[in-house]
Amino acid sequence: MRTKLLRWSLFLGAAAMLALLGVSSAQVTQQQQEGEMGVESHIGKLTGRASAAKTNYRRYCVGCHGEKGDGNGENAPWIDPKPRDFTLATFKCRSTPTGTLPTDEDLFNTIGRGLDNSNMPQWLPLSKQNRADMVAYVKHFSPRWKTEKPGTPIQVPHEPEVSADRIKAGLQLFQKMECWKCHGPEGHGDGPSAPTLTDSKDRPIPPYDFTEGHRFKCGQTDEDLYKIFMTGLDGTPMPSFADNLNPEQAWDLVFYLRTLQPMHTKEKDIAKQLGLKPIEPNAPATPPADK
Amino acid sequence: MTTRYKFVGMASALLLLAFGLLYSTRSVSAAAEGKITGTIKLQGTPAHQRPIDMSKEPNCQKAHADHPVTTETVVTGPNNALQYVVVYISEGLPAAAASQVPSETPTWDQKGCQYIPHVMALDVNQHFKVTNSDPHSHNIHPIPKPGSANHEWNKSQPAGAAPFDVTWPAEEVAIHVKCNIHPWMSGYMAVVKGPTATSDNDGSYTLSNVPPGNYTLTAWQETYGTQTQKVTVSAGQPAKADFTFKAK
Q1: Candidate from B135, B146, B155 with C-beta closest to A239
Q2: Per-residue pLDDT tens for A38-91?
Q3: Residues of B in contact with A244 (CB under 8 A)
Q4: A290 and chain B: CB distance < 8 Å anywhere?
């Protein structure tokens, strides 16, 4: 009788322990999920909440970016360039220096603008609030947002007046910075290094063809172009030139790049008047000051 | 009953003695510092190294005109010595020794379209310089592994540009570094805590400033992976630890 009682009490005790453990672990996972779903974004006066974007993500984004946000959605195999892997938190279009997280506004702008030359469309049909919520949802995929703050956005000074001298200086920078090694001497995206370029996941990636594109990967304004080469497109071969160009030079380069594009630009008119010739790739790369 | 008291007394005396000994050796170990030296060899035929065609970068082709350059995934020296192996203490280092950051600032140079050195061993948060000795641009593009606390960045460094001052915040063996303009350029930065070194062309390495103690030593080579062994360092006597990697 006594042994039976002892056995029973042991059994009950073990069962209680197990039950307790089960409850606590269930609580932990729930808390974790809620913690991640509690990620917020702040865009101007808007506050985005990850929890509010769950349905929209499953409806509009999951097909490419995948349930885990790793860019392995069911459409991913047929898409090039591949959908972004949010778990790495490495983003092309940023206002922040290379190697740092983008701002909430950067992500918000990307969602609204879409990414040219890719399958990522503009998501303007989603309301601003929906997009702000989606920014928070994108952030919940990577732990980096918990431990790091976004980089300090680079300062883009007021755009100066375009001039013949600035365009000529821009051409020299195009040569000296060796933009042509990938983008080609005339901006066709056919430079000597173009065929071997790979992204950070070792997938082939073409350089931008200036002569065919009206819009750039991260926008279409002069300021967007300025930011592209001053921050670099992280995850791709496109580096940051922030350490090598001062703001004046950066604007010179923006003006020169505008002369390569297919549409009518005022920079193109000036280049025509000047009789500006494309760079000579085999000329020694000497600083403009020495000429 | 008295025997029991005697036993308890003896036991506590022994315990006291043991703790005393432990503490005394500890204070000794903090004072003296030792070294670990060794040689790293390769058994078998090294993996084939492909010649590199640098014709797309005439400056670099000219620089290597006398001595054609090959890939560097396995670099051997005389007597089967294996070069560019990173050796570091993976276990057993006291927290104080692990958190010391060397004040030397090594240089990672881009010269003749190669990284010099090909493999660099660094401490967490140790400053180092990235320089460009070539008469043309490079883009320096370290790509840490996914999930690492180190993060990818990508900067252009034209001819004559000022050196970059760089640190890595977390341990990682090893971070791959690429130049997208010159796709053959490949190097590694091994970031660890505590004493570390890479083997020379004769396969030798030296870890300095190692406090006496028992350690697990790890050697990493980019093609052949890692090997570990236990080593004991006593005060005033350098320990020796040789490694032999087997060619696959």
Answers
A1: B155
A2: 899 999 999 999 999 999 999 999 999 999 999 999 999 999 999 999 999 999
A3: 156-158, 161
A4: no
Domain boundary among A94, A118, A147: A147
Nearest chain A Cα distance for residue B139, angstroms: 6
For residue A281, what are the CA distances in angstroms to A193, A244, A284, B57?
13, 20, 8, 11
A240:B156 CB<8 A: yes
Q: How far apart, in whole angstroms, are the C-alpha atoms of residue A196 and residue A81?
A: 16
> Any idea what the CATH number is for the domain that residue A96 is in?
1.10.760.10
Q: In this complex, do B153 and A99 lie within 8 Å of one another by their Cβ atoms?
A: yes
CA distance A18 to chain B (A): 33
**Cross-chain residue pair A197–B180, CB shorter than 8 Å:** yes
Structural domain contains residue A50: yes
> pLDDT per residue over A197-249, tens digit each?
999 999 999 999 999 988 999 999 999 999 999 999 999 999 999 999 999 99
Residue type, position B74, single letter: V
Residue A243 located in a structural domain: yes
Q: Verify whether the Cβ–Cβ distance A178 to B181 is below 8 Å.
A: yes
Q: Does A209 reside within a domain?
A: yes
Q: By residue range, what is the domain housing residue A72?
A: 40-147
The 10s digit of each residue's pLDDT in B17-60 is 455 444 444 434 443 478 999 999 999 999 999 999 999 999 89
ipTM for the whole complex: 0.84
Within this chain, do residues A168 and A248 fall inside the same structural domain, yes or no? yes
Query: Do A181 and A79 share a domain, yes or no?
Result: no
CB contacts under 8 A, A 113-172 vs B, are: 144, 147
pLDDT at B194: 94
Q: Is residue A111 part of a domain?
A: yes
Residues A141 and A68 in one domain: yes
Number of domains forming the structure of chain A? 2
Q: Is A196's CB within 8 Å of B158's CB?
A: no
Tally A–B CB contacts below 8 A.
84
Judgement on whether residues A85 and A177 belong to the same structural domain of the protein = no
User: Rounded to an integer, what distance in angstroms lies between the CA atom of residue B173 and that of residue A12?
Assistant: 50
By the CB < 8 Å criterion, does A176 face chain B?
yes
Looking at residue B83, its pLDDT comes to: 97
A135/A230 same-domain check: no
Residues A171 and A224 in one domain: yes
Against a cut of 0.80, is the pTM above it?
Answer: yes
